Amino acid sequence: MNYDFLIVGQGISGSIVALQLKKISKKFKLLESGNPNTSSRAAAGIVHPISLKKCNLSWRGREFYDFGKAFYKEINFQSGIELYKPYKLLRVFASFEEQNNWIGKSNNEIYKNILSLNKKVIGSVETKFGSGIVEVCSRLSVNEFLNFVRRSSLENKSLKNDFFYPEKLKLKENKFYYQGDIYSKIIMCDGVNALKNPMFNYLPIIPNKGEILKVFSETLPNQIINCGIFSLPEIKNIFTVGSTYSNEDQQNKSTEIAKEYLMKKLNKIIDTDGIEIIDQKFGFRPTTPDRKPLIGEHPIIKNLYIINGMGSKAILMAPLLISELLDTIYKNKPLDSLVNIERFAIKIEDVNINYAKSLE
Ligand SMILES: Cc1cc2nc3c(=O)[nH]c(=O)nc-3n(C[C@H](O)[C@H](O)[C@H](O)COP(=O)(O)OP(=O)(O)OC[C@H]3O[C@@H](n4cnc5c(N)ncnc54)[C@H](O)[C@@H]3O)c2cc1C
Hints:
Number of domains: 3
Shape: globular
Number of helices: 9
Order of helices and strands: EHEHEEEHEHEEHHEEEEEEEHEEEHH
Radius of gyration: 21 Å
CATH class of the largest domain: Alpha Beta
Largest sheet: 9 strands, mixed
CATH architecture of the largest domain: 3-Layer(bba) Sandwich
CATH superfamily of the largest domain: FAD/NAD(P)-binding domain
Helix content: 25-40%
Bound molecules: flavin-adenine dinucleotide
């Protein structure tokens, strides 16, 4: 069978590629290995354009948020499920300095409809230094979103559909041949697994481990609160609490240290007696040294692309950045140089060059 695209990996990135290709009537096949502990499967799904620590709009934040909002609302409509929902996020300040900074920003024209000061008491949450609200915030139910894309896009719905790069891929007259099918283009959306991939493992992807808890609580408030870590209401009395960030811990399992860290942080703003942990998950975020995604065409193998390095903001950034990549492919528009993998072309190694040659 002939396809326009092979998409490798059905995390948030691969899923959004699939949905956007469908919209422009491109024929694709999506392969997903079914690893249950991916970054996307662990993600809480919170999306807003603010960098909370510094109380700043994040890079291209508003533009990403507005594009993503329209994109996800269309997916709500297509799926008939409210996968993407607006929320307000309560930020509990850690100091008077943070409070002052927030007050200053919320009076600034740019932040006027984005940040406000909170004057209400929120259940038994302790807000010694006050609190603020991010008015522009939503939540994507990531697992349900991935399941929807899986149901509607995966040809082979079996969980195990690994792409074996070196052994089976061939390239003839600008077309990729893989397991009996022919593809015009390939988009690799394989997250941290790209580090094992001879096509793109010269790129500086840093796996950043994140752990997250599911808890039962009768005291946590029914809105997103953030005090460095967050609590997110799921269904009645069930909350997601996260996340940790670690570049050091590379163990493929959940840890006691992370559990203790999250509960200790939560205990700073609410009494955690009576909060019961019912589940714990982990995943490795694909992060980069310059905190910008890795997007673009392979420097040697034409028509082979990558979308990676989304860090902790895939839900915010991926819809617009993927649309921009498709505009580069089909409308010849230049890609944002800050995300373009050209910036790391110098890092390509012999092993990658030899792999590229071996495809012919
Ligand atoms: C605890 C935690 C909480 C987070 N919370 C948020 C949040 O609230 N908001 C937010 O925006 N981001 C959040 N993130 C970050 C977000 O999860 C990542 O930015 C995002 O998941 C990256 O998506 P991806 O599709 O690029 O990569 P991945 O999620 O890693 O997906 C890659 C996919 O490729 C598949 N794959 C890999 N190799 C192959 C192969 N050879 N063949 C077939 N399939 C393959 C994998 O199985 C996987 O499904 C969080 C991350 C963690 C860990």
